[in-house]
Specification:
Radius of gyration: 13 Å
Helix content: under 10%
Distance between the termini: 40 Å
Number of helices: 0
Order of helices and strands: EEEEEEEEEEE
Number of strands: 11
Oligomer: single chain
């Protein structure tokens, strides 16, 4: 059974930074694609960023491009999301999800971690 656990959320002032981490138990991320999504009050789930574990290929939502960086750490079997220049509109519950690289649907989801950016 694969479990994803996020960590690193918290409260930060606008302009600040946070680093989120998504760790997997039960298997490694080899041959998988890992994404970060967020859910803000009153809004639908929004894609933030994703990375292919094997190739390192990444893509980002336009709203976070240039401010957020997704990366992988083989030693920790984790995918991290470095968030800089945070804005109040980045406030949301951030969740990581994983799927096989050749698939289209994310199979596994974490419980999420709260990120709150104060103005």
């Amino acid at each position: 059974q694969v479990q994803l656990v996020e960590s690193g959320g918290g409260l930060v002032q606008a302009g600040g930074s946070l680093r989120l981490s998504c760790k997997a138990s039960g298997r490694t991320f080899v041959n998988w694609r890992v994404g970060w999504f967020r859910l803000a009050p009153g809004k639908g789930r929004e894609f933030v960023a994703a990375i292919s574990w094997d190739s390192g290929n990444t893509n980002y939502a336009e709203t976070v491009k240039g401010r957020f960086t997704i990366s992988r750490d083989s030693a920790k079997n984790s995918v991290d999301l470095q968030m800089n220049s945070l804005k109040p509109e980045d406030t949301a519950v951030y969740s990581c999800a994983a799927r096989p690289s050749g698939g289209s649907n994310y199979y596994y989801w974490g419980q999420g971690t709260q990120v709150t950016v104060s103005s």
